[in-house]
Amino acid sequence: MINEELVRKVIAEVLQEVAASENVESASVTARPSAPAVKAEISMEMTEKERATRGTDAREVVVAIPPAFGTEFDATIVDVSLADVLRQVFAGIEEQGLSWRLVRVYHTADVAFIAHQAAKLSGSGVGIGIISRGTTVIHQRDLAPLNNLELFPQSPLLDLETFRAIGRNAGMYAKGEQPVPVATKNDPMARPKFQGIAALLHNKEVKALDRSKSPMELQVRFR
């Protein structure tokens, strides 16, 4: 069930920005719709290092995120901690004996293009893109941006077990294997239930973009 208080807060913020009024109280969009919450067992600190370049290690998978991931937002659309999301994706990659790099992509909030950028930077040619609400794509360098290896569009249905499996499959693709696609739940009501909130959160994510900035490599520390 959608949290009505969240809807009111998000709408209030949108109206405030449209009216450009300094007297309207700013609303927070860091809350999420009601759902079985996954409390973060860890927190993370991300530090920008240098401009991301194409890797030379054929046994790496690059994970790419947009600017609002971990800054404006700290959880997915169903309140799964973004720190835990990354931790599980990395663990899945490591299970396959591969390494990972984390990159922040500044020029787009489209998960397909974020994932494709990750693949182009990856030494193995395989990358993962994750946006703040949880939508995820596994991509390969030589594929067209909208033609990916695996797409996970129903972010409200993605849990930590699924994110770990995503990392695991990406590692298998990077090794030249053909894994069975990650099984996901399907709820035909998920889209209409969360579509409005997803659109508002996307707008917030787009505002954090810097289209003149190159992808940057990140150092992440879990605590």
TrEMBL record:
InterPro entries: B12-dep_deHydtase_bsu, Dehydtase/Dehydtase_re. It comes from the Bacteria. This is Dehydratase medium subunit. It comes from Dethiosulfovibrio peptidovorans DSM 11002.
